[in-house]
Amino acid sequence: MNDREYGIFLPIGNGGWIMSDTAPHPEATYEYNRTAAMLAEQADFDFIMSMAKWRGYGGTTDHWGQTLESITMMAALAEATERVKIWATVHTNLIHPAVAAKMYATLDQISHGRSGMNIVVGAYAQEFSQMGQWRDDFDHETRYRYTEEWLKVVELLWANDTVTFDGEFFTLDDCQSRPHPAVHPTLISAGRSPRGLDFQSRFADGSFLTADDLPGLRDNSQQVKELAAAQGRSIKTYSMLTVVMDETDALAEAKFAEYGRGVDTEAIVNMKLSWGLPLDKALSMTADSSGYEAFQTAVVKGSPDTVHERIDELMQTTGIDGLMLIFPDYHADLPPFGEQVMPKLREQPQPQPLSQQSHHSASASMSGVTA
């Protein structure tokens, strides 16, 4: 049985996931995302997910200068859909665990048990310092220790009528949070640092991974699964992929080249600076003439048959359990993908070697993106 999972990363920020002024420019509106979610359900996708973002990157496209809030939007999309899983993102350093516990218990009811919590350890200083919510004394390790305690509090509130808790970061005194979720929300987390993989292996149901190439993605997937198994747990692994599809390979290549031609270098540099990179390194990393720099994930491009073959080969080579897909124009791209690619992806895959061409197409820009 083919039990691979496929989802879409909703364009909750203006510009979607391509930083270019020659690419389609999804607007950060509920109506756009509602249509995308409904099309994804019609196309037989398994889940929809949205990021949380609080500050954009400027540039000629004002990339992500406008964003919607993840949890409230996904609650509305739970009403607009019937089957797809609803995965919303929470920054643990912004929302108190008691508030988050109540929000996701509510989302559980709205979605009839389809809810998921994408747990993000906020790491971009400027994004949070603008609202006075950045702590310079929280290094990488401390942020994860904080998030582990944050999640422990959420879990206690989901399971008990009253919680008294005295921890390193949180204090609760006869704290009540009812009703509890009828279905435990799916817990998702991303990151490939050793500390991030450790957190995922011990607490998450799903791990979103990135790597520089397909062998690296396979190794990361195996590592987090082995770490989870050592804890007596199992975990599913996912990655992200942008799909540029047209009727023929040549047309898809031309579309890809056109999107890459208008790369918003200023916005990309600002994004890399937000990661904490020095300016000279951010500039050097942006000096790419191949067109991939405009895309925030790995890219697969081609006709429907080629896209299917590349995705199938990627999945078989890496052994991951699912993919979250990104489309340049969700409204135009989802219907043909659902009609011409998804039925083939749902078929029982046949083992086949990864060709050199497909390895290049699917992994040439296997760089990370953080929700």
From TrEMBL:
- A GO term, aspect molecular function: alkanesulfonate monooxygenase activity
Taxonomy, superkingdom: Bacteria
- Name a single GO biological process: alkanesulfonate catabolic process
* Region annotation (Disordered) ranges: 346-371
Q: Which residues form the Luciferase-like domain?
A: 5-321
| CDD domains in alphabetical order | Alkanesulfonate_monoxygenase
Q: Which UniProt keywords apply?
A: Flavoprotein, FMN, Monooxygenase, Oxidoreductase
InterPro entries in the cross-refs: Luciferase-like_dom, Luciferase-like_sf, SsuD_RutA_monooxygenase
- Where is this chain compositionally biased, Low complexity type? 353-365
PANTHER family assigned:
ALKANESULFONATE MONOOXYGENASE (PTHR42847), ALKANESULFONATE MONOOXYGENASE-RELATED (PTHR42847:SF4)
User: What is this protein identified as?
Assistant: LLM class flavin-dependent oxidoreductase
The organism is: Subtercola vilae
